[in-house]
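Task: sequence in, structure out. Protein: ABC transporter domain-containing protein.
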Amino acid sequence: MSYELEDLEKLGGDYAQLTNTTIRSFGWEGVTVTVKDRQTKQQKTILSDVNGVVKSGELLALMGPSGSGKTTLLNVLAHRAAAADANVKANVYINGAQSSPSRFRQISSYVEQEDALVGSLTVRETLSFAARLSLPSTVSKMERLQRIEALLTAFGLQGQANNLIGTPIRKGISGGQKRRVSVASQLITSPKLLFLDEPTSGLDSAASFEVISFVKDIAKKHNLIVIASIHQPSTSTFAMFDKLLLLSQGGTAYSGPVSEVQPYFDSSGFPIPPYMNPAEFIIDFVNTDFARDRKEIDQQLNMVHSSWHKSALATATVSELQDEMSRPPSENTAEPEEQSSTVDKLKIPIVLIHRSFIKSYRDVIAYGIRIAMYMGLAIMMGTVWLRLGTTQNNIQAFINAIFFGGAFMSFMAVAYIPAYLEDRAIFVKERANGLYGPTSFIVANFITGLPYLFVITMLFSVVAYWLTNFRPTAGSFFSWVMWLFLDLIAAESLVVLISSIVPIFVVALAATAFANGLWMSVGGFLVTPGSLNVFWRYVFHYIDYQSYVFQGMMVNEFQYRQYECMPTPGAAQPCHCMYTPSAADQCIIDGTAVLDSYGYKTGQQGTWVGILIGIVVGYRLLGWLVLYIRRT
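Result:
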């Protein structure tokens, strides 16, 4: 079934699936998080006995200076890892009852501080792929399209629906619009609780107001619960929140309605100056980073925390939590409507492959630049080793060309590191939201790369192979293509493994370059396998994918080719042969004599191909294992 654009636009009104009819309240009690200090080896408190409650249709702002614990609290409330080796004590309630992590994931969504968006997709495509990755199989295509169009309308994105998100070399939508797309993509599953980590980070005051305004409209209209960590909002943005939870050094400095902030601080002896942004004042007031008198600021914070614990608002928060927990059991349930429905796991790799193909052909950084690099390398190689003749003087030149073609094609796979790191960053964020795991990501990444690597191989070979004058038969040409294709697959698999271990561009680049230098050194060209040091030979040579590519290309070139020896007029021998000639009275060298000097045997190509495939699988499995273990 297909739908025209005008039909889709008619779907963009209200949609009932987003409206919250099951979650009445969300509360937390006694949230305490401690970690062991690596230097002192003592327990350090990040959060201390934090309570709070938010009702449906309300927006809560988590505020505090840097290091106050607001991001940690947001992660605890969202059932995410608070910190490495953290000891967490918390009671989290939905409608006054505790909920399992699996059920909680079905009714909540988390928007990261950094946008997990593919820059080469349009706004509508971004929401479409979000829907395909997260919605259960019971949701029809018509309903999926309806949700997409409704969100485009609700977030004011219809005018930008067909615009690209934006890449470093292709301008896209604005920063505020990107944040709206990030929020909308999380609302595609109709969550009842929405967690936002610094939704206004990197935005100016106008864009910040725009983002929070759209979120507030959605929350009020559809009765959602929104909890957002936010850093020093403008006066107008701050006023749009219903409640505030202010943290300082892990403790509560204020928790309650935004409208009561000024009266509370005035009555506590810390009046907010007139005509000053309340959010700015209270953040500066509890900030200890720039204190000149440490003792004085500590006393001030103790007074703030003490005033809060003795306040009527603190008592009201605890009473509100107890009221929610004391309701009849029939009212303290939060079963999601689609609890038994799940996303089709077999379709996820297909969706990821589809998205990756779009990204790859639109974003020249992924493969476009690499194709240009390889074509330049092919022209350079073909013209440097231009039309080599079949004389013994050119045997070493042919060997050099074989090594160069395989080794440097492999080395230039480092150009894939930036594209992979971008894909990995998106995977980490989508995995944290429970969309898919490392298996789907690795499978999709591998399959997406195959056609591009084959195109690169063919374009390079068509130019370099025939210009160099390698053995001029169709069979030899396609055998060369096979070896080079396997070489590039193994090189890209190595990039995936190293970049998964160290997902930092400069470090991954250095490590990959070092690994390629190692494989070149022990591959059999610079030092023949028989002369190679025993340690390097048995530890690294036999697991070096470049060595099998070099062997395969050598056999492909020299097994069935002959070379003319250098004539020596007037001498006792009619010619001088660098290798043993095929017959004493002939000035012809069989290529197998060249292979014998390296210790390479013919008829083992199938074994070498099998070993290469095994190396590729090994790299991918290790890459999968690293992604499985690492969560960030």
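The chain has a mean pLDDT of 87.
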